[in-house]
From TrEMBL:
Protein name: GntR family transcriptional regulator
Stored SMART domains: HTH_GNTR, UTRA
Domain of life: Bacteria
Residue stretches spanning the membrane: none
PROSITE patterns in the record: HTH_GNTR (PS50949)
HTH gntR-type domain sequence ranges: 10-78
Swiss-Prot/TrEMBL keywords: DNA-binding, Transcription, Transcription regulation
Coiled coil: none
Keyword Oxidoreductase set for record: no
Listed InterPro entries: Bact_HTH_transcr_reg (IPR050679), Chorismate_lyase_/UTRA_dom_sf (IPR028978), Tscrpt_reg_HTH_GntR (IPR000524), UTRA (IPR011663), WH-like_DNA-bd_sf (IPR036388), WH_DNA-bd_sf (IPR036390)
């Protein structure tokens, strides 16, 4: 008489994934290391290829690993960026000529690429907020430790920023907010709305996201002390790369 299976024992692909996950979280397998491939798992555990593929898919879907076509599956372990909402937007930051991203990266190397600055017709939504039919648009991608983590698109009223460094690829020390200060309309108040969704194909490609990874979308509007809206910014964040921190007084 054969023995009954152990109750509630997870399937073999789950147990393999659990073992690989433990090796990643312990530091035995580090960011960028190649995980055992399907053939190696098949030989080690005497399993079918579909089972080996399932085991690796678990880690990919958790955001702990990323497949590279024709190369294998690699550990994608990343120290999260702690995004402090009020600290990064403080006038003490950009008003002193420091980049907002200095507050996010905290000494980690960061890079800005895919910069595009264009004059466009505003969408109905942006036009209603900025009260401007034409907007200067700044699109860019941010990377930390060599990994793309955020796409950002800022809209500014064309009549307000025309001829300023905001319309150039490089805005200078302190970024666009410092340049708004030079124009006499420094931001004094911000509102942010946060939601999560699945990425569009272009977003997945630009952020190099594994399948199944959602993004965080932050929509921000900047206002002067008199309540004049001077920027609308939509940011798309790799959800696996961020911790969002907000501090409030009781």
């Amino acid at each position: 008489m054969s023995e009954s299976p152990v109750p509630h024992e997870p399937p073999i692909y789950r147990r393999i994934a659990d073992g690989l996950r433990a090796r990643i979280l312990s530091g035995e397998l580090r960011d960028g290391d190649r995980l055992p491939g399907e053939n190696a798992l098949m030989a080690e555990y005497a399993i079918a290829r579909a089972t080996a593929r399932q085991a690796l898919a678990v880690l990919i879907n958790e955001g702990l690993a990323v497949p590279k076509r024709g190369s294998g599956v690699y550990v994608r372990l990343f120290k999260p960026i702690r995004r402090h909402g009020s600290r990064r937007l403080s006038r003490e930051q950009w008003g002193q000529g420091r980049a907002i991203w200095d507050a996010d990266a905290r000494g980690r190397p960061f890079d800005v690429d895919r910069v595009e600055v264009v004059l466009e017709q505003a969408s109905d939504e942006v036009a209603s907020v900025l009260d401007s039919l034409e907007v200067w648009v700044r699109r860019r991608r941010y990377s930390v430790d060599g990994r793309p983590v955020q796409l950002s698109t800022s809209f500014f009223p064309a009549h307000l920023v025309e001829g300023s460094a905001i319309t150039l690829p490089h805005t200078g020390p302190g970024g666009a907010y410092a340049r708004l200060g030079d124009l006499g309309v420094p931001p004094a108040h911000f509102t942010e709305e946060v939601r999560a969704r699945m990425p569009a194909p272009r977003e997945s490609a630009m952020l190099d996201l594994p399948g199944g990874t959602p993004v965080i979308v932050i929509a921000r509007t900047a206002y002067t002390s008199g309540g004049l809206p001077v920027e609308v910014n939509e940011m798309v964040l790799d959800s696996a790369a961020y911790v969002l921190q907000y501090d409030f007084d009781a």
